[in-house]
Specification:
Layout (H helix, E strand, L loop, with lengths): L13 E5 L3 H7 L4 H22 L3 E8 L7 H24 L2 E6 L8 H14 L5 E9 L1 H15 L5 H5 L12 E4 L18 E4 L9 H13 L12
Parallel strand pairs: 1-2, 1-5, 2-4, 3-4, 5-6
Helix pairs in contact: 1-2, 2-3, 2-7, 3-4
The protein binds 3-methylbut-3-enyl trihydrogen diphosphate (2 copies) and magnesium ion.
C-alpha cells in the first residue's frame, strides 16, 4: 500500500466507516442490489488489512442500522444471511490476523438467533487478540444506543454525567472516534456513533463501498492528518 506522506506518529487510533453505496454499485452494473452487498465483503477485508498495516487499533464499521429494517423484506433477509455466512467464512482468517471482533447494536427479536450465535462465537474466538479491534455495528443506531444508556442510568439511579452515559454505551471500552469516513458521496451521519464521534474528523469519499480498498483508507488518513483538531481550544494549544 502507498503510504507516502503518512505520519506514523499521527495515526488515528479509532476509525469508523459507513460502508455505503452497495446498491448503487450493483445497479450501475445491471446487477441486483444484494450483489452489491456481496461485493462489499472484499472491500471490508481489504480495509481491515489496510488498518492493520497502518497501525490503526480500532475500526468500527456500520453493517446494518436500526433504520435498515425499512428495506424490502428480501433485502433484509439477505443481509441477515450474508452477515452470518461472512462471519462463518472469515472469522478464522481474521483470528489469524490478530483481529478482535466485537459487535454494537440491539440484540432484539428481529435479529435471527443463528446470526446472534455466530456473532457470539466470533467474539469468543477472537477475544484475546490485540492487533485490531473490529467492531461491527449491527442493528445499531446512535439514538437507540443513547436511549438504552439513559434507561440503564435511570435504573442504576446514577448521577447524570457524561462519564455515566459513556459507561453505559454498547461498548464502554470503545474510545472516541478520531476519523469518521462515509463512502458513496453521501454527506450524512445516518445515526452512526453520534456520541463517540462528537469530535471526529469527518471524511466523505466518492468511492462506492464495493470499490473501497486499503489505498482509500490511507488517503482518508492523510486527509485526517491535514486537519487541525482543536477540540474547542485554540490552534497549537497543547
Ligand atoms: C450500504 O449500501 C449497505 C447497507 C445499508 C446495508 P446501501 O445498500 O445503502 O447502498 P445504496 O446507498 O443504496 O447505494
Ligand atoms: C447507513 O447507510 C447504514 C449502513 C451503511 C449500514 P444507509 O444507506 O442506510 O443510510 P441512508 O438511508 O442513506 O441515510
Ligand atoms: Mg445507502
Amino acid at each position: 500500500m502507498e503510504t507516502t506522506g503518512i505520519d506514523q506518529a499521527l495515526i488515528p487510533s479509532h476509525v469508523a466507516c459507513v460502508m455505503d453505496g452497495n446498491g448503487r454499485w450493483a445497479q450501475r452494473r445491471g446487477l441486483k442490489r444484494t450483489d452489491g452487498h456481496s461485493a462489499g465483503e472484499e472491500a471490508l477485508l481489504d480495509a481491515i488489512h489496510g488498518a492493520l498495516e497502518l497501525g490503526i487499533s480500532w475500526l468500527t464499521v456500520y453493517a446494518f442500522s436500526t433504520e435498515n429494517w425499512r428495506r424490502p423484506t428480501d433485502e433484509v433477509r439477505f443481509l441477515m444471511g450474508f452477515n452470518e455466512s461472512l462471519l462463518v467464512r472469515r472469522r478464522d482468517e481474521l483470528h489469524e490476523l490478530g483481529v478482535r471482533i466485537r459487535f454494537i447494536g440491539r440484540r432484539d427479536w428481529r435479529v435471527p438467533k443463528r446470526l446472534l450465535k455466530q456473532m457470539d462465537r466470533s467474539v469468543e474466538l477472537t477475544k484475546n487478540n490485540t492487533k485490531l479491534t473490529l467492531t461491527i455495528a449491527f442493528n445499531y443506531g446512535g439514538r437507540a444506543e443513547l436511549v438504552d444508556a439513559v434507561k440503564q442510568l435511570v435504573e442504576d439511579g446514577a448521577k447524570i454525567t457524561e462519564k455515566a452515559i459513556a459507561e453505559r454505551l454498547c461498548d464502554p471500552e470503545m474510545p472516541e472516534v478520531d476519523l469518521w469516513i462515509r463512502t458513496s458521496g453521501e454527506h450524512r451521519i445516518s445515526n452512526f456513533l453520534i456520541w463517540q464521534a462528537a469530535y471526529a474528523e469527518l471524511v466523505f469519499v466518492e468511492t462506492l463501498w464495493p470499490d473501497f480498498r486499503r489505498e482509500h483508507l490511507a488517503e482518508a488518513v492523510l486527509e485526517f492528518q491535514r486537519r487541525d483538531r482543536r477540540f474547542g481550544g485554540l490552534k497549537n494549544e497543547s
